[in-house]
Amino acid sequence: MTDYETWERRTPRQRIVRYVLTLLLVVAAVASWRALNVRYNYLGSAPTEFMDLVNRMYPPAVGYSTEIVSPLIETVHIAVLGTALAVMLSVPVALLGATNTTPNKLGFAVGKFIISFTRSVNVIIWALVFVIIFGSGTLAGVLAVAVRSIGFCSKLIAEAIEEIDPGQVEAIKATGANSVETAIYAIAPQIKPAFIGVSTYRWDINVRASTIIGFVGAGGIGVELNTAINFFQWQRVLTILLAILGIVIFSEFVSAYLRRKVR
Amino acid sequence: MATKQEERREWSRPTAFYNHYVKWAVYAVIAVFLLWSAWNMRISYARVVEGWNSGAGLVTSMFPPELTPFKTDLLIEGMVESIAMSVVATIIGAVISIPVAFMAAENIAPRPVYWVGRGLITVSRAFHELIIAIIVVKAVGIGALAGVIALTYKTLGFFAKLLAEEIEDIDEGQMEAVEATGANGIQTMLFGVVPQVMPRIVGLSIYRWDINIRHSTIVGIVGAGGIGSTLINSFDKYDYDFFMTIVLAIVAVVIVGELVSTYVRGRIQ
Amino acid sequence: MLSVTDLQKTYDTGDEALKGVSMDVTGNEMVAVIGPSGAGKSTFIRCINRLTEPTGGSVELDGVEVTGLSKKELRNARRDMGMIFQEFNLIERLTVMENVLSGRLGYVSTWKAFRRVFAGDDIERAYEVLDRVGLGGHENDRADELSGGQRQRVGIARAILQRPKILLVDEPTSSLDPETSREVMDLLTEIAAEDDIPVLINIHEVDLAEEYADRIVGLRDGQKVFEGTPADLDESARGQIYRGEEIPDLTTGAQQSAVVEETAGSTPTDEGETRRG
Ligand SMILES: Nc1ncnc2c1ncn2[C@@H]1O[C@H](COP(=O)(O)OP(=O)(O)OP(=O)(O)O)[C@@H](O)[C@H]1O
Ligand SMILES: [Mg+2]
Predict the structure, then answer these.
(1) Is the pLDDT score of B164 beyond 90?
(2) What are the DSSP E strand ranges found in chain C?
């Protein structure tokens, strides 16, 4: 123990808490690692395997690119339709789930439940569920994307509704407008930017989601990707990956543009 | 009165688009696009009815959840593997994102290194975890290792981007001051930047862990271990009762993970 | 004519904001309601068009008992009362024209309102009103691009597009600088005269009230403690309204009013401090 002790930034208690937490972290990490039963020979050969894969992928199959145009368009369709459906459905859910517009406690609980349940189930699981219900195809994909997005959209729209300026609502009421007119004139303009922002942002996310639901047969480019991988057509795989990259960047650009357009 | 009528002024709402024709054209294009999309799906009335029936069947078969001892074991085993994957991936991902962040920081990395760093981050962020997982599975084989690698790579993209931005924002003057003491570039970074962003990294790690739990429950669908494998097996065997049980279990774990993460983040701040 | 009798309001919190206030507003007079913060001025004006639901008493406008009306009838009654707010309460993201036209919402069908279709006459009148409040040429500006004074003018235009039988004005100048405040007050006076409607106005600045009002009503703790012409508003009346002083008896009157004069000398800011304190 030297005088350096006085330099310590933390109180002894804080230090003990930190040590305990660090220890817990280490224990959790070790326990987790052991629970995974990783075979170390696989781990060791992983880098070579990856290099091998990359070598087999290059160069991309250029001729194949025309074949993937239509699944790519389908992917965008799924994202657009799914988002449109989600946005429509999330308006009533948001009205239920916002403290200032909810009709009663039960409605609020229902709204909150829909929001958290739909968000907690990944899009691929929703896709499986809808494939069970409707059989494989785009329809299952659209519904999966839509249902998964309801919670996200409703949550953000509900937050926007909670933040509206009540003064504007009162002013319109004071002119003798009825409640529908008040909603159109005083509430809608206030949540419009959030609404557009949420829709386009979610559409952007949904484009990514639409690229993978094909793995379980719910349409889009994922079907092609899955097939190419299963038949070890690695050059095609690279072509598809590049196409996905392109479409993802495209959607990011479009969504950013639209959000800038609506203030 | 008649003259008054004639000089009556008109008004129409100015539009964000170039003019009203453009606006209506844009709306028309959107409408046509949606119709085209819908038409592409070929939804028929019969299909909707059929779907409704099988959906109702699925929901009713969901209760009570099917839990024979054997299946309970499968469920727990898969879930433990998923959570273990999420823990390992979060830790490794956070740690190795530090060097990658330095590679991807424009103000310190040499050009070629910078492009490699940025490339790693962009690819990680652009691709869905399942796409990364399916490729990793082909490289290292089916199992939890593939899941860990995939999740680690996604985590890396998340952290390295944030950290790189942090590094790019630091005060050059301060950096020079530290350099003047004789420290080299890396030392400057390690002592000048990393401690500053450490509290944020801890908060973000917990946030990312939450996300990784979600992802760890699905990567098994493409063979990368965890409860997702159990889920896809029951799906392939048409064992929809057990399938729904697993889905409910996943929802429960995800919600608990979110609560824990929110609580812990609240406590650190 | 507006006739308010024994108006009471007790909020759910238990706050007795109005303890029975009565007054009449007729012709084209401007009646200013003054009083310290929390006196119940806003509550009073909001109870008249029932943005706040009164808990007792009655409000009568041209023979119609507003307090007893059903929802639908209340909407019709509200069309006859133009309201102007301290924070303007414009729809920030809509254009000036749409804000002004929203004054007609009580008259258009919901379907037309949904499509934002207004009658040609309404549009023409909106242009005229905009000219009148000095905002000609601003019809396509968005409300959030305007200055405070301009916004309040839009608020006034919205109210007069209703063709109201009375204007209810809640502290129209508190968010404005002194010069703009005067412009707004001038405009309100002009409207009262030209359209021949009364104006009931809550106001913080006593000097503005004295300058513009035909009659002044003083509220304190939910009760009317003063009513008279601006000339009647002497130092003792001010003391009564703002400091709750009893009406001084004649023996100590001279002394007390001297003290009051000192503190109340530099009127507007001083009043402001008194209110907050
Ligand atoms: N919505 C409300 N809920 C509960 N109490 C309220 C509410 N609005 C006002 N009050 C209370 O009623 C009383 C009168 O408030 P009011 O806003 O009418 O005063 P005011 O004279 O307009 O004051 P100011 O000059 O600050 O605008 C105050 O005590 C206030 O706390
Ligand atoms: Mg007030």
Answers:
(1) no
(2) 2-10, 16-25, 30-34, 56-61, 64-65, 81-84, 166-170, 199-202, 215-220, 223-228
Q: How far is A184 from chain C, CA to nearest CA, in Å?
A: 7
- The distance of C253 to chain A (nearest Cα, Å) reads 45
Contacts of C108 (CB under 8 A, 6+ apart): A181, C117, C118, C119
Residue A66 pLDDT: 83
Q: List CB contacts (< 8 A) between A186 and chain C.
A: 91
> What is the residue-level pLDDT of chain A in tens, covering all 263 positions?
444 545 556 677 878 888 888 888 888 888 888 888 777 777 777 788 888 888 888 888 778 878 888 889 889 889 989 999 999 999 999 989 998 888 889 999 999 999 988 988 999 999 999 998 888 888 899 999 999 999 999 999 999 999 999 999 999 999 999 988 998 899 999 998 888 889 999 999 999 999 999 999 888 899 999 999 988 888 899 999 999 999 988 988 888 888 887 76
Q: How far apart are the C-alpha atoms of A261 and B26, rounded to whole Å?
A: 14
Element (H, E) at A149: helix A138-162
Beta carbons of A171 and C79 less than 8 Å apart:
no
Residue length of chain A: 263
**Would you say domain C1-80+164-179+189-277 falls under CATH 3.40.50.300?**
yes
Share of residues in chain B with pLDDT > 70 (%): 83
Element holding A98 (H helix, E strand): none
CATH of B72-268, one of 1.10.101.10, 3.30.565.10, 3.40.50.300, 1.10.3720.10: 1.10.3720.10
Nearest protein Cα to ligand 1, atom 31: C38
Three-state DSSP state, C56: strand
Whether chain A has a CB inside 8 Å of the CB on C162: the answer is: yes
d(CA B244, CA B64) in angstroms, rounded, equals: 10
Q: Are A145 and A206 in contact (CB under 8 A)?
A: yes
- Four-way CATH pick for A67-261: 1.10.10.10, 1.10.3720.10, 3.30.360.10, 3.40.50.410: 1.10.3720.10
What ipTM score was computed for the predicted complex, to two decimals?
0.83
Distance CA A26, CA B95 (A): 13
| Residue contacts between A and B (CB atoms, under 8 Å) | 148
